[in-house]
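Note to self: keep these together.
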Amino acid sequence: MFGRKKGPRYDRTGKQPVIRASICTGEKVAGYRDTATGRFVEVVLIRSDADLEQFLRDYGFDRSEIKYEW
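Structure:
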């Protein structure tokens, strides 16, 4: 479930990049939410800023597009 899954380029239509963060533990998981179904797909556990940057590069997202969920 966690760890790096090399993401193929995909149709970004209807996909919102999301970081889920735990208020209690501070754990962060990056992924994307399908806006049509509401389904969240976990992609990588964020342990450092480098992990986040890699997620953004792999999936072609920009930091300004990320939505945070607590």
